[in-house]
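Following up on my earlier thread - several people asked me to post the actual chain instead of describing it. Fair enough. Here it is, all 169 residues.
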Amino acid sequence: MTLPMAGHTEPHRYLESAATAAEAIDNIQTQEFVDENVPATGAYKYRVRAIIDLCEPSEWAVTAEEVTVTLELGNASGLTATAGSVPGIVNLSWTAAPNASVHWLAGIKQSDWTAGNYTGIIWTQTQGPSSHILSGLTSGEEYVFAVIGGRSVNGPWSSWTSLMRVTPN
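Reply from S.P.:
Thanks for posting it. Predicted structure:
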């Protein structure tokens, strides 16, 4: 009875005797499979199968178990903000949230934040590097920034980074 393990290159394992597929499945020793090319987009389903006889299609693909794996979404951290050398520019960088495919950067003038006026929030989405340059800010006015990571543009989301304040030149 041949029991090939998907993703393995070593020779097939053989069981000496097993009257049924269920008994064969019960006798399978624990195998490990590592999938290193999974994008960080959520839950993945793997189906574990035992092949009873490669020459007998009627005995193929007895499903042993389905396993769903969900990658844990971590938090972005280490946000830094520095005034650029040109007026109205701010350079922001952070450590990406583990297993996030997108980050949102939010910024607001400190005076609006204090007054509870959130209509002027600056939203920027990044899917690439963990840095961004914002331009067009008011020179000499303090801004507050934070970053959040997510699996997609619609979430789910991690927690926000700590707030970072900066005043553009």
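Residues 21-27 form the longest helix (7 residues). That should answer part of your original question.
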